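Tutorial, part two.
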Amino acid sequence: MLKKLLINCLKIAISVGIIAYLVMDAVNNRVFTDLGNRPKNWGLLAGSALVCFMAVLVTLVRWYYLIRALDLPVRFQEAIRIGFVGYLFNLSPVGIVGGDLLKAVMLARNYPGRRAEAAATVFVDRVIGLYVLFVVASVAIVVTRFWQLPAPNPQAARAIQVICQATLVLTAIGTAAMLALLIPNLTNGRLTRLLATLPYVGRVTERLINAVRMYRWNPLVLVLSFLMSVVVHSLFSIGIYLIAAGLYDEYPTLGTHFVVSPLSSATGVLPISMGPFEYVLDRLYAAVLLPDGTFMQKGQGLVVALGYRIITVLTAAVGMGYYLASRQEFAAVLHDAGQPETAE
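Running the prediction step on this input gives:
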C-alpha cells in the first residue's frame, strides 16, 4: 500500500513539475498576456471540440466491432455507454482504476466465462490505436519531408531528424510485428512459450499473441479497425490544428499537425496523467517553421495543448452523465477492478 502511494505521489510530482516548467516558459515569453489581448475565433474552437468528440466516438465504435468479432452479444448503446465511462476514467487522476481496466471488467461481468475475450477486445483496441498513431505520423513525415524543414537552431534541427528517424524505425518494427503475429506458426507452439519467458516483456508479448490469435479468423475486422484508427488520429490532428487556428494568427500548417499531433499523443503510453503531451507539443511547435517564415514562441504550444485538455474534459462529461445514471453499477465494477485477481 505504501509503495503504491509513493508511486502515485511520484507520478503527480512529475506531472506538476513538467507543467510548472512549461508555464514558467510561457510566462517568461508573455504568452498568456498576449493570448488574453488577442481576439479568438470561437467558431474554430467550437469546431475543434466537435471534431475531437467525433474522434472519441469513432474509437468507441471501433471497440464495438472488436467486441462483436469475438461473438460477445453486446448492444451498440451498451458499448458506447461503457466506452464513455472508460474515457472518463482514463482522464482521472493517478491511483484511480484506469478506463481500459474498467471496460474489460464491465464486459467480463456482463458475460461470465468470457473474461479472456473481454480483456482481448480492450488490449487489441489499444495496440491498434497506438500502432496506427505511428503509421499516421510516419506517412505525414514522408509526405511533408518533415526532417528537412528549417529549424530555429542546429540543435532543434538535429532533434527533429532524430525524432523522424525514431518514428520511422518504430513504425517499421511495429509493422513487422503485426504481420508476424498473424502467421499461425508464430502464435502457436514452442516459439510462443519461448517469447513468454523473456524478462520484462514476456508476459505482455504472450498476452498480445493470445489476443491476436482470437482475431486471426476475422481479418476484415482488423482491417476495419486499422482504417477507423486512421480516421481517429486524423480527426485529432485536425482538432488540434483548429485550436491553434482559433487562438493565433500564425500557426503550423495542417500537414505539420499530422506529424506533431500523433507524436505528442504517443506519450500517452507513459503512466503519467499530464505533462508529456504538453511538453512534446510545445517543443515541436517551437521547432517548426510557420508559413510567414517565423517560429512560434515557447509556451504557445502549451496553450494549444491546454485547449485540447479542456475539450477532452468536456467530452468526458458525457461519461460522467452515464456514470451518475448508473452509479451503483459502476461502483461494483470499480470494486471488482480493484481486486488483485480481477486486475491481473
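DSSP finds 15 helices and no strands in the chain. In part three we will examine how such features are distributed along the chain.
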